[in-house]
Specification:
The complex is a heterodimer of chains A (453) and B (128). Chain A has 453 residues and is an all-alpha fold. Chain A folds into three domains: 67 residues; 188 residues, no CATH class; 167 residues, no CATH class. Chain A is built from 19 helices and no strands. Chain B has four helices and three strands; from the N terminus they run αβααββα. In chain B, strands 1-3-2 form a three-stranded antiparallel β-sheet. Chain B has one domain: Orthogonal Bundle (Arc Repressor Mutant, subunit A). In chain B, helix 1 packs across helix 4. With 128 residues, chain B is α+β, with helices and mostly antiparallel strands. Classes of the chains: A mainly alpha (453), B alpha+beta (128). At the A-B interface, helix 2, helix 4 and helix 18 of A face helix 2, helix 3 and strand 3 of B.
Chain lengths: 453, 128
Amino acid sequence: MAAVEHLDLDEQIARWRAHAERRQAIGTDVDELEDHLRGLVEELEASGLSPDEAFLVAVRRMGALDDVSREFAREHAERLWKQLVVMQDDGPPGRGRRGLGLVLALAVGAGLAVKIPSLFDVDGDTLALFYLPNLSLLVFPFLAAWFAWSRSMPARRVWVQLVLPFAVAALAANLFPLTQDSASLVLMTIHLPIALWFVVGLAYTGGEWRSGARRMDFIRFTGEWFVYYVLIALGGAALVGLTGLGFTAIGVDPFPVLGAWVVPCGAAGAVLVAAWLVEAKQNVIENIAPVLTRVFTPLTTIALLVFLVTVAVARPGVDVERELLILGDLMLVLVLGLILYALSARSPDTPPGLFDRLQLLLVALALVVDALMLVAMAGRIAEFGASPNKVAALGLNIVLLVNLARAGWLGLGFVRGRRPFGAVERWQTDYLPVIAVWVTLVALVLPPVFGWA
Amino acid sequence: MHVDKDLVAASATPLVLAILAEGESYGYAILRRVDELSGGRMAWTDGMLYPLLHRLDRLGLVTSSWGISPQGRRRRHYAITPAGLEALADRRQQWEMVTAALGRVWDDAARLATPPAQGPAAPAAGIA
């Protein structure tokens, strides 16, 4: 008896479809491909081929699924975020497994780097003065090193894009004569890590920072990394607490050791572990990012509304509280973060929906808050004169205002169906260098300009 | 004779845009039109058309909408946008420049290759 399995055409096409569906890059476009395949089969059958022959020829005409899905991947990078199949054939094979060993070694390195300075015999104030601007410098180079290695970054790029910026930052952090109560120290402590995060971004893109798609990947990475880091931190805190209680119960006080070693080294090492998890386990978290943005976009919109109403009722004017301005700045940064996060989690194919309108409302509210704050800030500068803090806050507001205004305009065009989603995306990826330059200016240029005030 | 792969790739975008400028269409019909226009000599891997269409969609050069085919299958239709028409006009100019330059250099080459009347018809044989 012939053991040849005979499938009718529909079953054969269903099998082909199942095969295609397994490629993440093709994703939901499989319907379109199936329609095409059936069109080919019909035409070939009409020209006299048997259904089996027609199917075979049609599949061949469609192209090898590997090649087709690679082409889809190039166009739909966001789908591959779930599973970096393409990246894997770009890099040399075998880095995946060895990567874990290296990342753990680098995590230990970062943990030790953070701990070692405190082992020197100096007083607490000097130590604090050292740690504040230097903390990110002790950790981020390890992360950048890992990316440079896993992306096989050329040596020249490593020197120019990574070593040079880190060296400049290290010189500035340690040679600037900043005193403990200076505003410049606070500004540097806040802005230098952000500036250096962009340097990590250079490593993340393997030096190809000019590519909009790679920048978008880095935005995505930043969002996911943050989620992972928070999860690890929460888990770590619970574990430290439990361990501590356990030791206390048997009469040993573990908190000096936990506080001096486990917490700081763990926090530094977790930066690398979180980054590795993002790279390795993207599909797990990918489902969380859209959920988080959908939860927090409405909440932030409400928060901004409340803020606006409060300001309108209280009418603080020029003498508006400093704290209120700082709070407003933080909210605007949060809004921009949410927009970027939503952007990175959104599939560009889906047509504009309710959520996009809600986000537009959020942007509009943020613009109003930003404009109000700009007025208040300008008033403060006019009245009390410029200071590093005020200039930094004013600049941040202008940087955000420009970004939000254009994002709102493009978003409006997108919601009305006049603009492709790509325009919204491109604006944000194009704007990243502006943010990077601004935080670098605040960290490195404002302190000397204001005489280390 | 078949057209070289790189050349097919380079001409894919203007070709698809030009076909869509003739009217709304869908993937399968677009490829049939390419076959028709090139006499079957521009061999595309059919599956590769779709990533290209999606890219044009993302760039806002075409729009797409899902419909139902006469056979009752889900089918995505593509139509060119004003931005797409602009891009097409731009591409067209570029291709005209390229073909004009090639045409000129080939004319010159043909003139040089035509030997003068009194010259030898073929170069003398080399040393054996």
